[in-house]
TrEMBL record:
Main location: membrane
UniProt key word Membrane: yes
Cell compartments where the protein resides: Membrane
Designated name of the protein: Penicillin-binding protein 2B
Organismal lineage: Bacteria, Bacillati, Bacillota, Bacilli, Bacillales
Top-rank taxon: Bacteria
Keywords: Membrane
Limits of the PASTA domain: 590-650
Length: 729
């Protein structure tokens, strides 16, 4: 026995020494085995970058949402007086089908499905189930409604979703992003269209991780270290779009689109001095939040071609003036013009007899363009069109841009191109070319991305204005503007409906044929089968804005003309935008302003009283006492009635947010650090936590906003200077 037991102990001793020396048992490395058992890793999800307008207003961002979970195992209800799992799958499925985008049958099958045990191979009921894409991105309102049904076993987990607070707002420009299930069953937000897709890599960011060691019950093991690799949030993209001007455009286009039942519409507004696109929209459009209305995935401004009609006469005129072939007082026979066996006619078919060049342009005579082209020369004319950027891409920072075609196959092609038929362009090409007319001959490249800022606040991409060329001299540009202004003011002008009180408008109407889809080489006929447009600028002597509007196949009543729907959009949007930009200070009422002082380290009560006496509204963040931060900062100008935020130590008392703007709520959220969920756009209608309640950092506060009718007047809380840098949540 002694020998036997001695041998066993000796063998055990040898085994222990071997394990200590090699760290291997039965071919398995113990260190790796321990790491597999106790090592844990959690993903730290990177937040997708925001898309903002030129002033920092949110256009797209990640926001708090919820994920729907159903606990289906009876094990969850053990030792509980009330059921904590789904007790009636059929009834639960019927109710949930009212709130999520999933059929009742599919919900029921999901609630009753079985899974195969990886160890035994037997089918068993899972502990809980989810509902894929249909159960994610649940809003606070839907969550509250489902919770009110008091369904056993139905719970929610916090999640994020892509939020578009402005509804159908430059939708074909912005595009949309949505969560997609990956191969590893995780979900990731992917850009599917527009800027969301084109800049998906910059917006997405890089996930981080948290590594730690825990026991079988997931408790952190003693003396174990946590290794954190922080997530790198996606970059923020600031656009050149001005939210206020864009809202003017969206509202006006919606009214005209509905009123005239048009086939489609397109409009662009730009700053001619820089090439910045301030607004861009089209109809039909869609809501990026739910994709309702999405029937056309192309951005008409850059990805579709059209025949420009008489708006092209602007550049034929510029070419004639630049080459010395514009003679405003000279006479020509209007009515018709023949090229070999082809005859073109003026839009009234018979003309107006012998008239001057100037009157012919004001009447939008096609034959005038033909006579001027004789003097310019076909090759020189095409060369000028090339200088104006037609027939090639502008290089705008948007995906899928097309170039259009300048037709030169036959002699008649040069003539028809001179008045805008046959050859094709894009709306963005017309905008680019028009900057040369408005900007003393310098043609500016259009762009929509102002800058890209990474998660650390560093600008990684900045777009500066780019001169694409100088197709004409400054004096030529001024003459063209003067002649375009006369089409609005002259007795025979075709653009008289585009006059705006208080501003001189310069521009050119256009009426283009539409190709017949059923008869190649032919055009549609009838008053309602044209593309009506206007390319204009204001003020005429020093243009601050240029705008292109086109309405395809509006349903016109007897007595109406194609200029009616187009001018309804142009006039209202241009006038409101000019006033919003204070282009005409004489018509803008003076506003009392106040220069901010430095209140940091001062006592709250004294500063609060002083601010109220000057007509400002102080908002105290914290318990009061010594001020540690303020907004607006020292030396910034604010208007009377503005909110001033004073931050102190301690817990904050919730204010009454009623009628606060979205911007003010965002500033309060950033400075207070409170968990505030914002739903909607415009001004606050109600809040989930009452005024006067002391807030806790973890408490959720839901603030619901409603959208009022837009006006050109800025909110009373508008502050001059830079916007506050809002922290990442």
């Amino acid at each position: 026995m002694l020998v036997i037991y001695g041998g066993l102990f000796f063998a055990l001793f040898v085994k222990i020494v071997h394990i200590q020396a090699t760290g291997v048992v039965n071919g398995q490395v113990l260190e790796a085995r321990a790491a597999a058992l106790y090592g844990k890793e959690a993903v730290l999800t990177a937040e997708r970058g925001k898309i903002l307008d030129r002033s920092g207003n949110i256009i797209a961002e990640d926001t708090l949402s919820y994920r729907l979970i159903a606990v289906v195992s009876p094990e969850a209800s053990k030792n509980s007086k009330t059921p904590r799992h789904v007790t009636d799958p059929q009834a639960t499925a019927k109710i949930l089908a009212k709130y999520i985008n999933m059929d009742e049958t599919d919900i029921y099958n999901n609630l009753t499905k079985k899974i195969r045990d990886s160890k035994t191979g037997e089918l068993k009921q899972p502990y809980q189930v989810e509902f894929g894409v249909a159960g994610r991105s649940i809003s606070h309102e839907i969550k509250s409604a489902i919770e009110a049904e008091e369904l056993p076993g139905i719970v929610f987990s916090s999640d994020t979703k892509r939020y578009y607070p402005n509804g159908p707002f430059a939708s074909h420009l912005i595009g949309f992003a949505m969560k997609e299930q990956q191969d590893d069953n995780s979900f990731k937000t992917i850009g599917k269209m527009g800027l969301e897709q084109f800049y998906n890599e910059q917006l997405t960011g890089v996930n981080g991780s948290l590594q730690y060691k825990s026991d079988a019950f997931h408790y952190l093991l003693p003396n174990s270290e946590k290794m954190i690799k922080p997530a790198k949030d996606g970059s923020d993209i600031y656009l050149t779009i001005d939210k206020t001007i864009q809202n003017f455009l969206e509202e006006s286009m919606s009214k005209v689109y509905e009123k005239y039942e048009a086939e489609s519409m397109i409009a662009i507004i730009a700053d001619p001095d820089t090439g910045e696109i301030l607004a861009m929209s089209q109809r039909p459009t869609f809501d990026p939040e739910n994709r309702v209305g999405l029937v056309d995935w192309l951005n008409t401004s850059t990805q579709k071609i059209l025949e420009p009609g008489s708006t092209m006469k602007i550049f034929t005129l510029a070419s004639a003036i630049e080459t010395g072939n514009w003679h405003p007082g000279a006479f020509y026979p209007s009515g018709s013009y023949t090229v070999f066996d082809r005859t073109i006619r003026d839009h009234n078919n018979v003309g107006w007899g012998s008239i001057t060049y100037l009157e012919g342009f004001q009447r939008s005579s096609n034959t005038l363009m033909a006579y001027m082209l004789e003097n310019i020369g076909n090759d020189v004319f095409v060369d000028y069109l090339d200088k104006f950027g037609f027939g090639k891409k502008t290089g705008i920072d948007l995906p899928g841009e097309v170039s259009g075609t300048i037709k030169t196959d036959w002699a008649i092609d040069y003539v028809t191109t001179s008045y805008g038929q046959g050859s094709t362009v894009t709306p963005i090409q017309l905008i680019q070319a028009m900057t040369a007319i408005a900007n003393e001959g310098k043609m500016m490249q259009p762009y929509v991305i102002d800058r890209v800022v990474d998660s650390e606040g560093k600008t990684v991409q900045k777009h500066e204005p780019t001169v694409k060329g100088t197709p004409i001299a400054a004096e030529t540009a001024k003459q063209v503007r003067d002649i375009l202004a006369s089409t609005v003011t002259a007795q025979y002008g075709t653009a008289k409906k585009f006059a705006i009180d208080g501003y001189d408008v310069a521009g050119k109407t256009g009426t283009a044929y539409i190709a017949d889809p059923d008869n190649p080489g032919r055009y549609l006929s009838g008053q309602n089968n044209y593309l009506y447009s206007f390319l204009g600028m204001a003020p005429a002597d020093d243009p601050q804005l240029i705008m292109y509007v086109a309405v395809k196949q509006p349903q016109l009543e007897t007595g109406e003309t194609g200029s009616d729907p187009v001018s309804e959009v142009f006039n209202s949007v241009m006038e409101n935008s000019l006033k919003y930009l204070n282009i005409d200070p004489e018509n803008v009422a003076e506003v009392d302003t106040f220069t901010m002082d430095n209140y940091i380290s001062k006592n709250t009560s004294e500063v609060e009283q002083s601010l109220r006496e000057t007509g400002l509204n102080p908002i105290i963040i914290g318990e009061g006492g010594k001020i540690i931060d303020q907004y607006p900062n020292k030396d910034l100008q604010v208007t009377k009635g503005s909110l001033v935020y004073l931050k102190t130590e301690g817990a904050s008392t919730i204010p009454d947010f009623t009628n606060w703007s979205l911007r003010n709520v965002l500033i309060y959220k950033a400075m207070s650090g409170l968990n505030i969920e914002i739903a909607g756009e415009g001004y606050v209608e109600n809040q989930s936590v009452s005024e006067g309640v002391i807030a806790r950092d973890s408490s959720l506060i839901v603030v619901n906003l409603k959208t009022p009718e837009e006006t050109f007047l800025p909110p009373v809380e508008e502050v001059s200077g830079e916007l506050i840098d809002l922290p990442q949540d």
